[in-house]
Amino acid sequence: MGPNRNISILLTVPALLVVALLFIYPLGFSLVGAFQDKAGVWTLGNFGRAWELYRLDTAFTVVIVLVSCVLIALMSIAIGGYLTLGESPLAKSILGFLYRWPLFIPFIVAAQCMRTFIARNGMMNMTLVYFGILDLDQVQGFLDWRGIVFTFVWKQTPFVALMVAGAMAGLDRATIEAARNLGASRLRILVEIVVPQVSRTLAVGLVLSFVTMMSVLSVPLMLSGQSPSMLTVNMAWRINSVGDYGTANALGFVSYLMTGFAAWFYLRHGMREKAGQ
Amino acid sequence: MSASFRWPLRAILLGLFAFAIFGPLANLLIWSVAEAWFWPNKLPSQWGFRFWEVVFRPSGRAMESLWLSVWIALLTTACALALSIPAGYALARGKLPWRPLVLLLFLLPQAFPSLPVYINIARIFFTFDLNGTVPGVVLVHTVHGLVYSVWIATAAFAAIEPELEQAARNMGATAPRTFFEVTLPLAAPGLVASAIFVFLESLDEFTGSFFVGAPEVRTLPLLLYNASAGGNIQIASISALILLVPSVAFMLLVERFLKGEVMAKLGR
Fold this sequence. Notes:
The structure holds two protein chains of two kinds.
Chain A: H1 5-34, H2 45-85, H3 89-99, H4 107-117, H5 123-130, H6 145-169, H7 173-181, H8 186-215, H9 218-223, H10 231-242, H11 245-276
Helix pairs in contact in A: 1-11, 2-6, 2-8, 2-11, 4-6, 6-8, 7-8, 8-11, 10-11
Chain B: H1 3-32, E1 34-36, E2 46-47, H2 50-56, H3 62-93, H4 99-111, H5 114-127, H6 134-158, H7 162-170, H8 175-204, H9 207-213, H10 220-229, H11 233-254, H12 260-264
Antiparallel strand pairs in B: 1-2
Helix pairs in contact in B: 1-11, 2-11, 3-6, 3-8, 4-6, 5-9, 6-8, 6-9, 7-8, 8-11, 10-11
């Protein structure tokens, strides 16, 4: 059933051609540019400069993205878990209504929202002061790495939670009911029965979120332009202000390695699962 | 935990969650109608629509930018669907050699931080006079959107029971007829979901538009960014609210299309 080998290739070629011409070809330009100086001579000097100027920012980028991924995973499991195992239909429907809102909100809009919400004089601090949880002279702004993490988690959790909740809804209820009848707590059912069965879906969502966070320029640029910042901001700076394509391409190469590692991690996970079947 | 403690706990947690979700949006909304707001006032001291008039003034560029952004997003969606429906069908149903590699290839535009690639695209486009044109921006957005449209289209086709197609074939339907009358309608909700993703990704996109489109093609995200960088919080907030309308409208619509079975098939 389905198209044969030749027709399959033919159906895929137009899309592959667009990716090849408009992505892989310019990507090749940028990869070559990472290893050449301005005169076109092969060199590792761009990486030397990148290491010298941006090693802290590179570590910073890894930490921000990984912390965001961990928080997104925990939030998604919590949301999906309550939607699957929760006992109150009202609480479930309120949660189901609430969590999706940031899903389609553009990153640049999320960044603009957070620029005011978590600033020193933002609504978050003002509300905490209003309820007497914070004193007015204690308030601090979060427009730094914490703001970037908060915005990434705010924006990406609905996407991963939607996938995870969908996978959880499709699970066989019999095992869950059996465990419940044997007296297992809901937390234990979630951790030991539900999460292992949706780990593949969770991994896909996290890989997609990882690469999205590595590609977004607007959020780190608008929330924390100062040092230390993320690699995307550094690359924009090298090009817009210094006109230094070599170092920018070297930094691009570094972030490509990071996202390549994430994709490899997912594929290895998938192959191990297939081998086990 | 005794049942009497459950509702207060639920209410507190849901309340905190609602504040985290809607707080940033509320702050944006308040800033759009704040004419004067000084530290440490919890709310603006002067409210009004003065900045809305600035944005919607005929000489203002916001409305022009909005329609341009929507037009670019529609063209991008059409291009991405035309490419991803055949590709997704082949990836889900066909006998494609190196299938995981092909799927990974479509992930690449999303996997590589787009900024250095966009600069090199701009260099290539310069030769073809595509810089600063709508087709140039549409092409850049299409490549970016293909990752969503191909992966979701593949999942949508994979979620259909092959027996249904087999039944149509057994009753004498040709392969194209089976595809257009059985497979495509069944996959339609998933394909609409992928179209929505592509549309919103295009509407959101600003790095590529900046390098390939600016200054001739000025999309709404570009306008918002310039206002925000210039410290014009009200103008930036109003532009952000305008971008928010299609996003929220689609979120309310998309529940019909984003089915759990399709989402669970993603990446398989």
